[in-house]
Recover the amino acids of this structure.
């Protein structure tokens, strides 16, 4: 059985949503009050995830982030061909009257962007780790992954962040 | 040192800039620049803008939100701003209050819209103490069921801005430039703009509101008045703004598609 990880987040006054069932190593959710954290991904402290598959890395925002942001009504993504730098903003999402920067967990060249988000920005809420991916990057520095959090570390990070507020 | 002074000494610093009649495009350019390039906290108060102007949020589509025929005929400027949220018509009767904060200086606030608005709602509750019916209702500032201020946010990795356009007064005819938005809070109940909003001047004198807002901010920050020339500040920087004035041909194209 694949290692299952579950994470908790504080109850959200707006109501909560969980990521849809994933074909990736699934997270274990006890109830609708928990955000999902997946195995096989790396996580940034600004709540983005990255999944490396060969020479391409896919980037999006986490279930914790989409849950706290609320309904995403617009997603701004760059054009392919540009570059991203670790920790720098590459786009934004709009929810509840706010634009929120989305930062890249890694540096590299943008090779593809998720065009479905133009018509369906809500994919970021309903499927943050799959259909709601934002960009695909050809990484320029593989060692950057070492500075990111694994699933357990990120789970604890989210719990501590929510508990502090 | 007295106890109040000692307490204030522990508060984070906030620069206070006060304008009157500054064009809203210049104000928004300054705000976007300060959010992205400054490491200080800022409060910008603009006591009215110079001319009636329409301001849409980042994702706003003119054809969905505006009565473009009238907008084009009357040559009303239309701006797309860097924050989210809906569309407002602003003019000399609008009071703008913008708060740009470092996350670390407001540690109880998480960098998400509801957390920021909960904090700002409490701040304005302080400023409007005694006014019956004030609340943050479905993310709007209202007296009862009438909205008197539109707010929006932009959140970066380490900072955020919460800015508000308060309807101290407005011209009813200007509201006719705005369509009923597809996305509206439930409490609006499909009311027209004029039935949905109210004028702050019916509740509080203009200078009193500004004074009490500054006082409320002073309970969270050590406020330092700063003189800033908006033209110099915006012109000098090499910052590229996303906030922009829509060109006439863009509005005409949107109008022709919609008709």
């Amino acid at each position: 059985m694949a290692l299952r990880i579950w994470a908790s987040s504080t109850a959200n006054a707006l109501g909560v949503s969980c990521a849809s069932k994933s074909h990736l190593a699934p997270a274990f959710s006890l109830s609708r009050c928990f955000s999902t954290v997946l195995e096989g991904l790396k996580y940034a402290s600004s709540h983005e995830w990255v999944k490396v598959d060969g020479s391409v890395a896919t980037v999006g925002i986490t279930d914790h982030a989409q849950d706290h942001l609320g309904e995403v009504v617009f997603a701004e993504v760059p054009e392919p061909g540009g570059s991203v730098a670790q920790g720098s903003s590459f786009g934004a999402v709009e929810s509840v009257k706010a634009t929120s920067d989305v930062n890249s967990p890694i540096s590299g060249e943008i090779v593809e962007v998720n065009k479905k988000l133009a018509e369906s920005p809500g994919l970021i809420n309903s499927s943050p780790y799959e259909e709601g991916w934002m960009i695909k990057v050809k990484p320029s520095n593989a060692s950057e992954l070492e500075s990111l959090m694994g699933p357990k570390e990120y789970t604890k990070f989210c719990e501590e962040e929510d508990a502090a507020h | 040192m007295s106890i109040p002074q000692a307490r204030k000494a522990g508060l984070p610093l906030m620069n206070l800039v006060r304008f009157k009649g500054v064009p809203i495009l210049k104000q928004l350019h300054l705000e976007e620049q300060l959010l992205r390039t400054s490491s200080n906290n800022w409060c910008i108060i603009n006591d009215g803008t110079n001319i009636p102007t329409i301001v849409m949020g980042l994702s706003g589509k003119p054809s969905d939100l505006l009565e473009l025929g009238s907008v084009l005929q009357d040559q009303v400027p239309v701006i797309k701003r860097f924050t989210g949220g809906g569309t407002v018509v602003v003019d000399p009767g609008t009071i703008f209050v913008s708060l740009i904060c470092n996350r670390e200086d407001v540690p109880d606030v998480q960098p998400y819209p509801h957390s920021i608005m909960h904090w700002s709602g409490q701040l304005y509750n302080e400023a409007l103490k005694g006014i019956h019916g004030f609340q943050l209702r479905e993310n709007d500032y209202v007296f009862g069921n009438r909205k008197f201020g539109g707010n929006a946010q932009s959140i970066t990795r380490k900072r955020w801005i919460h800015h508000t356009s308060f309807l101290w007064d407005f011209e009813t005819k200007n509201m006719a430039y705005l369509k009923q938005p597809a996305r509206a809070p439930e409490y609006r109940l499909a009311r027209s703009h004029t039935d949905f909003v109210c004028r702050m001047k019916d509740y509080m004198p203009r200078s009193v509101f500004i004074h009490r807002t500054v006082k409320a901010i002073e309970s969270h920050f050590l406020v330092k008045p700063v003189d800033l020339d908006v033209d110099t500040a915006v012109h000098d920087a090499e910052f590229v703004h996303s906030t922009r004035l829509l060109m006439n041909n863009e509005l005409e194209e949107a109008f022709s598609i919609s008709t």
Observations:
- The radius of gyration of chain B is 18 Å.
- The interface with chain A takes residues 57-59, 82-86, 107-117, 139, 151-157, 183 of chain B (CB under 8 Å).
- Chain B has a mean pLDDT of 93.
- Chain B has one domain: 3-258.
